[in-house]
Design goal:
Elements lengths: L5 E3 L5 E6 L21 E5 L19 E2 L1 H13 L4 E6 L6 H11 L4 E7 L1 H8 L8 H9 L6 E5 L5 H7 L3 E5 L9 H9 L3 E5 L7 H13 L1
Parallel strand pairs: 4-7, 5-6, 5-8, 6-7, 8-9
Antiparallel strand pairs: 1-2, 2-3
Helix pairs in contact: 5-6
């Protein structure tokens, strides 16, 4: 395919590429590459039916991390724009496919996803002195780097009550291992008083930080 030409891959999915120099991308890909020997390619394509790949404005993960004092003003701007805010929270110690699947499902419940991440001190209070494995800055950055996540805020309290009061979610997402009765009731009340609803999302079986750590211990003993 010539530069700038519209083509299709072996499945009939259309893609277009514009070359500024360097090698072409693989069929159906969508990326921009910059660097010696590669040049720059900008492509739009469709890898599966209904999925349009377009280059969206890049937002670095550090730009997604909010400090608690800025959360109120950020939340008000979301409200003024008329968009629905989904909020979830957790330790997210060793990021795994269960986390990614859960966060994508949470994002689908609204227009924006804010993730509250427990600080190192609060993780220790919840899970013991051997946790967390990763420090709070690393955990927040890895969550912020996910495309489905719009903002991240680290909070220091063991309970997410204060964080939820600042975030005022339209939807509060929790894992399906909870029920309304087993939720932290102070957190539940905070969300419901703010007009938010609570959604329970399925988890990926066999995927958790605890199981990952157990597997690493087994490997180390072999």
């Amino acid at each position: 395919m010539e530069a700038g030409q519209l083509g299709s891959d072996e499945r009939g999915h259309q893609h277009s590429c514009r070359q500024d120099g360097g090698r072409p991308p693989s069929v159906g890909s969508s990326y921009a590459s910059h660097g010696e020997g590669f040049g720059s390619w900008e492509c739009t394509g469709r890898l599966s039916p209904g999925l349009a790949l377009r280059q969206s404005p890049f937002v670095g993960f550090s730009e997604k991390i909010l400090l608690p004092p800025s959360l109120t003003a950020w939340r008000e701007s979301i409200r003024q724009s008329g968009r629905q805010l989904v909020v979830t929270n957790g330790c997210f110690d060793l990021l795994h496919i269960g986390h990614a699947t859960y966060l994508e499902a949470a994002r689908a419940l609204g227009d924006l996803l804010l993730v509250g991440v427990n600080s190192d001190a609060s993780v220790r209070r919840l899970k013991g002195s051997s946790r967390p494995i990763r420090v709070e800055g690393d955990r927040a950055a890895l969550i912020a780097a996910l495309g489905c996540v719009d903002a991240v805020c680290v909070f220091d309290e063991t309970s997410a009550e204060r964080f939820l009061g600042l975030a005022q979610p339209d939807v509060w997402a929790k894992g399906a291992d909870y029920t309304l009765e087993t939720l932290n009731q102070a957190e539940r009340t905070t969300v419901e008083k703010g007009g938010g609803r609570i959604a329970f999302l399925p988890l990926v079986p066999g995927r958790s930080t605890t199981l990952t750590l157990k597997r690493l211990e087994e490997v180390a003993q072999q």
